[in-house]
Write a structure and sequence with these properties.
By secondary structure, the chain is α/β, with parallel strands linked by helices. It is built from 10 helices and 5 strands; from the N terminus they run ααααβαβαβααβαβα. It has 2 domains: 83 residues, Methyltransferase, Methionine Synthase (B12-binding Domains), Chain A, domain 1 (Orthogonal Bundle); 126 residues, Rossmann fold. The longest helix has 22 residues. 41% of the residues are buried.
Length: 212
């Protein structure tokens, strides 16, 4: 298992190739995918997220770590298929209409994926109908919306209204986040959950689907 500590180190350092190599070796040795994900990938992303919060790591490092983790995760995904308990739930995530920021959203998506959620990332500048379509098409458990501008966060309640109008509000939990968004705003617009960083987003998502 000593080799797997190299996976942790590779993700924290944002090195894709070593992360993939160590993961391949672990799979060949028959290490359980959930052990690789929970004990090494999730912890590595948690460490990077913490460093970011503490001002010791910056956006490029976050993205490199996310890329390294994603590369390793791709190798594990086929092994997780068919194991229903391997996925905690389905999450549709996107940045709302008028907003072209995707770094925070992608980081949250990577963290959720690394922690065992199936994530459908529908990109940036997403209109109401696209959110609704994606939730329906994927039978999503959670809808995550991100906004980085005060001008675009006002679109979030529009999406919630569209979900209600589509008759699926009782089937999906709604999470919101992004720099200008607050717990107060989330409560006001009727969202089920709010997070101000990628680490706590995972905890909130787990709470919402009762997987804590």
């Amino acid at each position: 298992m000593a080799e797997l500590s190299k996976l942790y180190d590779a993700i924290v350092a944002g090195k894709l190739e070593p992360a993939v190599e160590v993961t391949k070796e672990a799979i060949a040795e028959g290490v359980e995918p959930q052990v690789i994900i929970n004990d090494y990938m999730v912890k590595a992303m948690g460490e990077v997220g913490q460093r970011f919060q503490d001002g010791k790591a910056f956006v490029p490092q976050l993205l490199m770590a996310g890329r390294a983790m994603k590369g390793a995760l791709e190798l594990l995904k086929p092994l997780l298929k068919g194991n229903a308990s391997a996925t905690l739930g389905k999450v549709v995530i996107g940045t709302v209409k008028g907003d072209l920021h995707d770094i925070g959203k992608n980081l949250v998506a990577s963290m959720l994926e690394g922690c065992g959620f199936e994530v459908i990332n529908i990109g940036i500048d997403v209109p109401c109908e696209k959110f609704v379509e994606a939730v329906k098409a994927n039978n999503a458990d959670i809808l995550c919306m991100s906004a980085l501008l005060t001008t675009t966060m006002t679109y979030m309640p529009e999406v919630i209204k569209a979900v209600e109008a589509a008759g699926i509000r009782d089937k999906v939990k709604i999470m919101v986040g992004g720099a200008p968004v607050s717990q107060g705003f989330a409560t006001e617009i009727g969202a089920d959950g709010y997070s101000d960083n990628a680490n706590s987003a995972v905890a909130v998502a787990k709470q919402l689907i009762g997987a804590q």
